[in-house]
Amino acid sequence: MSPTEEPDPRPTTARPRWWARLxxxxxxxxxxxxxxxxxxxxxxxxxESFLGAGSAIGAAILLQxxxxxxxxxxxxxxxxxxxxxxxxxxVIGIQGRLDRQSPRMRALTLLxxxxxxxxxxxxxxxxxxxxxxxxxxxxxxxxLWAGAAIWITNVIxxxxxxxxxxxxxxxxxxIVKDSSPxxxxxxxxxxxxxxxxxxxxxxxxxxxxxxxAAFSPxxxxxxxxxxxxxxxxxxxxxxxxAILVVARAVNILD
Length: 254
Hints:
Elements: H1 18-23, H2 26-29, H3 38-46, E1 48-49, H4 51-66, H5 75-94, E2 97-98, H6 103-133, H7 140-165, H8 170-175, E3 183-184, H9 201-214, E4 221-222, H10 225-253
Antiparallel strand pairs: 1-2, 3-4
Helix pairs in contact: 4-5, 4-6, 4-7, 5-6, 6-7, 6-10, 7-9, 7-10, 9-10
C-alpha cells in the first residue's frame, strides 16, 4: 500500500479457522469492538445457534425412552419418534442460526414443546398415581431414576417455553434488540455493558433448573404475567414430584 492510500475502514467479517483461534486466540479478537466479548459479537452479528435448544430436545428424547414401561408405555415410542422427526425438520429448516422470523419453524418448535409436555405429563401422572396407591415401581433406584428423568424433562420443557416466549423468541430478540423483556436477567441490570449482553438457550435452561430446584425464582425475575404463571406451575410440579418420589423411595428402603 502506497503512503497516499488510506486503509480500508470497513471491518472484516472473516473468522479464522478453529485451529487458528485455538493456537492464537488474539486473532479472534482483532476485529471485535472494544468491550464486546467474542461470543456476544457473533451473537449480535449472526443470531443465536440452534445447537443448545436442539441438544436439549435430543436429551429429552433419550430421557423419555429411558423411562420404565410402567410409567411410559405407548408414549415411550410415540414421543421419541414424533419428536425426532420434528427435530430433524427444525435442524434442516433453521440451518444453524436463528436470524430470521419463520412462522413455520416457530410453529414446529411450539408443536415439539407441546408433544414433549404431553408425553412427560402422562408419565408424571402415572408415576404420581403409582406413588399414591403404593403400586408399580418397587426398587428405589428405578423409582429415583424415573422421577429424575421426568424432572429433568420438565426442566427442559419450561426452558424451551422461556426461550421461545421471552421477548418473542430468539429470532425476534435478534431482530429487535431493545424490546421489553419478560424475564429480567441480572446481566441486564449491570451499570455498564448491559446493552452488549444477550441471553441464549443455556441461560433459559439455567433459569428453569434453578426455578425447579429452589421451587421459586432465583436470580432471574419474571416480569410478565405469563412468565410468573409458568414459574409458579414449574415450581409446583417440581415440588410435588420431589416430595412423592423421595417419600416413596424412603418408604421402600424402610
